[in-house]
Write a structure and sequence with these properties.
- Strand 16 and strand 17 form a beta hairpin.
- The chain is globular and about 55 Å long.
- It has seven helices and 19 strands.
- It has one domain: Penicillin V Acylase, Chain A (4-Layer Sandwich).
- The strands form four sheets. An eight-stranded antiparallel sheet has the order 12-11-10-7-6-5-4-19, with helices on both faces. A seven-stranded antiparallel sheet has the order 1-18-17-16-3-2-13. It has a two-stranded parallel ribbon with strand order 8-9.
- 24% of the residues lie in helices and 37% in strands.
């Protein structure tokens, strides 16, 4: 069955802003040649934003592998139902989907920022570890709020190395960033009561010297400055959140924002954008999607051919510009 033929919620919206306007390829290549000369390094920008009765969790997955995937699974005896999202990877003959973030039916969401390797103190005495469990799925299946996620992290053995931090938020507006601490133990940077947002990029919130790229981080500063402008509940809306994701997205021949998302943690909605093409959005009702059953879907298959073609043309133009530079 065609995926768009299902009875579950599918909303394709044409919105006011777009990364790529319909210009001829020469103009596009001129823009891309400039961008190649000013290319960024590592990516992934995540933020929690809440005000009044609204709570949102948003992010860009920035990655060299261009294919993104989402996986749905319903509630079971193991725990809550939810969604995971990530990228396709293949090394030699081995391939897999590396899940980076997700959201469950209780309104708990997480995503990860890449960091350089950090030495950690192993804790084999703890209840679970990567050897026996997957922290991401375990958290989404068992945790309904940030406090429970922190408790689970404290009882999880992350081994002797950690090259990421985890940004977690819940439907109450609570949020925390779990990162490697300076002494080899976990550190927890929690959004303070009354604060309206929390942002993470690719520097360790507990130890900014531990980072990918420059510090201060321009993506971090851009997101913070834009989030500060949200003063009324009406200001906190999908169009404005999308504009923040657009402002901090990546484009290039080998590194791109392969998808972006906005989680409405109170409404149970998941807004998805393909390959930084922000003029088309897929909106999932998590409740309706979980009723369909467990499945994995390629994000590129969810959008229109026009959006796929535009993303492909842009990607190839970056490759041409990179080849000319050599």
């Amino acid at each position: 069955m065609n995926y768009f033929g299902r009875t579950s919620l599918r909303i394709i919206l044409v919105v006011c802003l777009s990364i790529i306007i319909d210009v001829d390829l020469n103009h596009r290549d001129a823009y891309i040649n400039h961008a190649v000369q000013n290319k960024p390094t590592k990516g992934c920008t995540i933020f929690t934003s809440c005000l009044g009765e609204k709570v949102f969790f948003c992010g860009n997955l920035d990655h060299p592998n261009p294919d993104g995937y989402i996986r749905f699974w319903p509630a079971s005896m193991e725990g809550y139902g939810g969604i995971l999202h990530g990228y396709y990877a293949k090394v030699n003959e081995r391939s897999w989907i590396g899940y980076e973030g997700g959201m469950n039916e209780k309104g708990l969401a997480f995503d990860t920022n890449g960091l350089p390797d950090a030495t950690m103190n192993p804790h084999p005495e703890k209840t679970s570890s990567w050897a026996s469990d997957n922290f991401w799925r375990r958290m989404l299946k068992k945790c309904a709020n940030v406090t429970e996620a922190i408790e689970m992290a404290n009882d999880f053995d992350f081994g002797n190395m950690m090259d990421f931090q985890v940004h977690v938020a819940d439907s109450s507006g609570d949020a925390v960033i779990i990162s490697p601490g300076a002494e080899g133990e976990l550190s927890f940077t929690r959004k303070k009561k009354g604060e309206r947002f929390l942002v993470s990029t690719n520097f360790n919130k507990a130890n900014p010297k531990h980072r990918h790229g420059e510090y201060p981080c321009k993506r971090y500063e851009t997101a913070v400055n834009m989030l500060k402008k949200i003063e009324r509940e009406d200001d906190l809306n999908i169009c404005y959140l999308r504009s923040i994701l657009d402002a901090v997205h990546f484009e290039g021949a080998s590194y791109n924002t392969i998808y972006s998302y906005i989680c409405d943690l109170k409404g149970g909605l998941f807004y998805l954008y393909y390959f930084h093409q922000f003029d088309e959005v897929i909106v999932f009702s998590l409740k309706k999607e979980l009723a369909i059953g467990e499945r994995t879907v390629k994000i590129g298959d969810l959008v229109t051919q026009k959006t796929r073609d535009r993303a492909s043309e842009e990607y190839q133009a970056y490759k041409r510009a990179k080849a000319k530079k050599r």
